[in-house]
Amino acid sequence: RMQRKTHFDNVPLKPQRVYEEMNTAFGKDTVYVTTIGLSQIAGAQFLRVYKPRHWINCGQAGPPGWTLPAALGVRAARPDAQIVALSGDYDFQFLIEELAVGAQHKLPYLHVVVNNSYLGLIRQSQRGFNMDFEVSLSFDNINTEEEEGAYGVDHVAVAEGLGCKAVRVKSPNEFQDAFARAQALMKEHQVPVVIEFILERVTNIAMGTEIDKINEFEEIL
């Protein structure tokens, strides 16, 4: 009864709902790989990890981009494991070109990208000091007619251009089909498959002892 709310039907998506659906879609043997950011912090709080060495993390060193090559390494080391990587868009873009390595060497895994184009961890920390300085991750992508063109990089197009497959999710009623499609694409093509979730721009995520100071559901103006 004391668990935090995760079942939101918002569009754009709230990240808590993504982690809820991941818990449903992926079993107890899933190996998660993740690095840094609000995506990693929220994932550590909401995702269910049942076994040792099934939460592969950079040890809080904070290297953006680590997730993708690390997931390829885990796949190479554990060819029979179900591997799910988790990145925000900032982490993912740092070494997105390494998807081509996964395609070249047939290293299939699922890469969940929670995309708010906002640099959320840095900007959430800044707000405690009455600051909100922006590194522009979003831009008006005039080369796409999709409404998420305002989020900037088309990760689906880039992933496919690098020899991989990708699925974009924009609303809660797409979750079940998206996970099933991604699993089928990974099995058929034996390459990394990106599942991109289009998130709301700003979501607060509580951090450890700071939980009382952060309201995850406040309206940011």
What fraction of the residues are assigned to beta strands by DSSP? 5-15%
> What's the tally of helices?
8
Most strands sheet? 6 strands, parallel
Mean pLDDT: 88
* Strand order within the widest beta sheet: 2-1-3-4-6-5
The SSE string, one letter per element, is HEHEHEHHEHHEHE
* Helix proportion range: 25-40%
- The stretches of 5 or more residues where confidence is low (pLDDT under 50) are none
Determine Rg (CA atoms, Å). Answer: 17 Å
Describe the overall structure:
The chain has 221 residues and is an alpha/beta fold. Helix content is 33%, strand content 14%. It has a six-stranded parallel beta sheet with strand order 2-1-3-4-6-5, sandwiched between helices. It is globular.
Topology readout:
Blueprint: H1 15-25, E1 31-34, H2 38-46, E2 55-57, H3 67-77, E3 83-88, H4 89-94, H5 99-104, E4 110-115, H6 120-127, H7 155-161, E5 165-169, H8 175-189, E6 193-198
Parallel strand pairs: 1-2, 1-3, 3-4, 4-6, 5-6
Brief overview:
With 221 residues, the protein is α/β, with parallel strands linked by helices.
Give keywords.
8 helices; 6-stranded parallel sheet; 14% strand; single chain; globular; alpha/beta
